[in-house]
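Dear H.,

Thanks for agreeing to be a second pair of eyes. The structure we're designing against is below in token form, covering all 342 positions.
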């Protein structure tokens, strides 16, 4: 999944269809529309006089040709105006890599509580996949557009005409699921020329994980990760990002639940009884109390000791399912406080 880098000299002639680099002028970027024989143009707004100076320094003179899931892209040596379509791991990774101030727009709101802490100022939201706002992306005047193949969707050609675009592969392209945040961090770091920093971030996380485990004996403790939609109970597969840190710590996941199970009927709820603890992913505004109440209100809740005993931890499902190196540290801290400390 790692990207292949080819260092190339960057001359004055850009790739066909990419925007100019003069920040003092308005740039019109043509992109093919879905109607044959017609062309849609995206008018980029001029950058205000008081905007930060994004003129490239010597580091930007050495462009890199990036091979990615949708082709190749010639990326500036030091991107200074980044549109990141993935508001999860890729966005988190860019902030962790020290490029937060270079991000001019992102795909969607993401995990409010977490992203607000790393990005306190409002930022342009440009959508993802079929909901991409190409005009807004062009107006942001990016020198790099980056996201997963899911975020890019079918708009790669149009995006590549606006700016160099990198479409990152995911763990399971068929379902757009992530089993581990590290490969996407490594790919993101390679695209922006900071591979060593990615290695350091991974090492820092591993050290924090080892520290959390130093005085803890798991002794075969089992955990099931679930989410609720009304009275429907869904199980997070042990290969997904939502279970990654638990797996990494050494918990036994989803014991007694047949592999590949996505949903458990109320009649099958007793399958969860093999778990010492339940982690409930909360995706709504109700919070901890509402999630616990919904769980205990299930008609067959009494068949699961963890529910009866209150061995339940409610967590932010958006964070657990989208976090990169920064967010995963929060997940680890939450596990250490609510599970390892039991």
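And this is the sequence the design step returned. I haven't edited it by hand at all.
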């Amino acid at each position: 999944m790692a990207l292949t880098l080819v260092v190339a000299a960057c001359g004055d002639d850009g790739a066909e269809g990419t925007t100019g680099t003069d920040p003092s002028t308005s740039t019109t970027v043509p992109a093919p529309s879905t109607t044959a024989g017609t062309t849609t143009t995206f008018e980029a707004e001029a950058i205000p006089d008081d905007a930060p100076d994004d003129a490239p320094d010597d580091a930007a003179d050495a462009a890199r040709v990036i091979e990615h899931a949708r082709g190749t892209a010639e990326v500036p040596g030091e991107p200074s105006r980044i549109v990141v379509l993935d508001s999860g791991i890729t966005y988190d990774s860019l902030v962790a890599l020290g490029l937060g101030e270079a991000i001019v727009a992102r795909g969607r709101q993401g995990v409010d509580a977490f992203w607000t802490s790393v990005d306190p100022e409002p930022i342009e939201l440009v959508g993802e996949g079929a909901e991409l706002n190409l005009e807004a992306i062009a107006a942001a005047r990016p020198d790099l557009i980056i996201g997963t193949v899911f975020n890019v969707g079918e708009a790669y050609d149009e995006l590549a005409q606006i700016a160099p675009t990198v479409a990152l592969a995911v763990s399971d392209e068929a379902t757009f699921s992530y089993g581990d945040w590290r490969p996407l961090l490594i790919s993101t770091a390679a695209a922006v020329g900071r591979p060593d920093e990615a290695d350091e971030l991974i090492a820092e996380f591993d050290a924090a994980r080892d520290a959390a485990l130093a005085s803890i004996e798991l002794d075969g403790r089992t955990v099931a990760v679930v989410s609720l939609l009304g009275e429907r109970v869904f199980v997070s597969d042990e290969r997904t990002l939502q279970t990654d840190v638990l797996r990494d710590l050494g918990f036994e996941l989803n014991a007694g639940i047949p592999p590949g199970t996505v949903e458990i009927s109320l009649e099958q709820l007793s399958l969860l009884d093999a778990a010492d603890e339940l982690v409930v992913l909360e995706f709504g505004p109700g919070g901890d109390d509402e999630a616990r109440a919904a769980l205990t209100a299930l008609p067959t809740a009494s068949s699961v000791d963890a529910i009866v005993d209150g061995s339940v931890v409610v967590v932010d499902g958006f964070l657990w399912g989208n976090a990169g190196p920064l967010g995963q540290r929060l997940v680890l801290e939450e596990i250490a406080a609510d599970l390892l400390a039991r």
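Two observations from my side: The first helix runs from residue 89 to 96. Residues 7 and 57 are 17 Å apart (CA to CA).

Warmly,
E.
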